[in-house]
Amino acid sequence: MSFGIDDLPVRDELRGKTPYGAPQLDVPVRLNTNENPYPLPEPLVERIAERVRDSARNLNRYPDRDAVELRTELARYLTKSSGHPVGVDNVWAANGSNEVIQQLLQTFGGPGRTAIGFEPSYSMHALIARSTGTGWISGPRGEDFTIDLAAAEKAIAEHRPDVVFVTTPNNPTGNAVPRETVLALYEAAQAAKPSMVIVDEAYVEFSHGASLLPLLEGRPNLVVSRTMSKAFGAAGLRLGYLAAHPAVVDAVQLVRLPYHLSAITQATALAALEHTDTLLGYVEQLKSERDRLVAELRATGYEVTASDANFIQFGRFEDSHTAWQRILDRGVLVRDNGVPGWLRVTAGTPAENDAFLDAVRELKKEQE
Ligand code: PMP
């Protein structure tokens, strides 16, 4: 027997656990991690090289600890895209929205405190809760994967969590949460505790509806979390950010590591933001491909959950893991999120989507 994790004096809550990990397999069509399939355009690649070269000249120095230039540009993007005025004091940035969420849980969760999410939802919320010593409460979701407001309000009143996660559009189901539901959950959370409500808008640029940023007005316990991994096509950059009351931005600074955001990351993100319009042009293409996938999946006889994201939950399968393997056998990697009967596919390029559609059509015939 080889020496393993459980032979080490690791924290009790980590014993027997497995790390987060979507398979990174080398197959022709990878539609499993909700990445943007379009590489960054060449002029942007050039601009990144230029900005990184400039910042390399100062790598003997620590980066701007407060990332002021970057936060200013992110605030400008949020203001322009939502029509809601967002200032540099309202914005905080970190290495991916996963780190944003970690900093929020380090600040507002932690030992003796709890967070709730309405599952199935983004599994990292629960995992980051665990790694920050925050108790996790699995809140309910309806049969159709919408949030059942009455049941959710009841869970909040009963558990009085310190943090409430609302993911909209939700991952892995794809559906957006109505504005009124988020408002009601915020009210319920304030009445119960009061607690912080984190609206995870990682996929909002792909949504048919608007961002919930305007709800920040007069709601200091609300946080909207965003990322450049999806709409900006920059998952490899690792840049996430939040918008909230300036007091929230001050609070997360109590837990952030000094100089957490490297000068290279800041320079690269600033270059990408200069090309926002081009990058968001790809979002439009992906939205129409997403809608085509929904229509084709339905026409083939699959059930589909209404999608406001760059991915689609489809089913139903008697055994989703076997279906996942059959699709993989045809060279297409989709995601089995462990939701019984369902799989998730990310909208790719038209050619990738065609390959996926061929695979699932064949699968359907096999199963008839
Ligand atoms: N939130 C949601 C809902 C996600 O699906 C993801 C990525 N899959 C993230 C946050 C984290 O993204 P990142 O750390 O790349 O910003």
From TrEMBL:
Aminotransferase class I/classII large domain ranges (all copies): 29-359
Key words, A-Z: Amino-acid biosynthesis, Aminotransferase, Histidine biosynthesis, Pyridoxal phosphate, Transferase
Bilayer-spanning residue ranges: none
Catalytic activity as recorded in UniProt: L-histidinol phosphate + 2-oxoglutarate = 3-(imidazol-4-yl)-2-oxopropyl phosphate + L-glutamate
EC nos: 2.6.1.9
Pfam families assigned: Aminotran_1_2 (PF00155)
The protein's required cofactors: pyridoxal 5'-phosphate
UniProt superkingdom: Bacteria
Pathway where this protein functions: Amino-acid biosynthesis; L-histidine biosynthesis; L-histidine from 5-phospho-alpha-D-ribose 1-diphosphate: step 7/9
Region (Disordered): 1-25
Molecular function via GO: histidinol-phosphate transaminase activity
Family the UniProt entry places it in: Belongs to the class-II pyridoxal-phosphate-dependent aminotransferase family. Histidinol-phosphate aminotransferase subfamily.
Protein name (Swiss-Prot/TrEMBL): Histidinol-phosphate aminotransferase
Gene: hisC
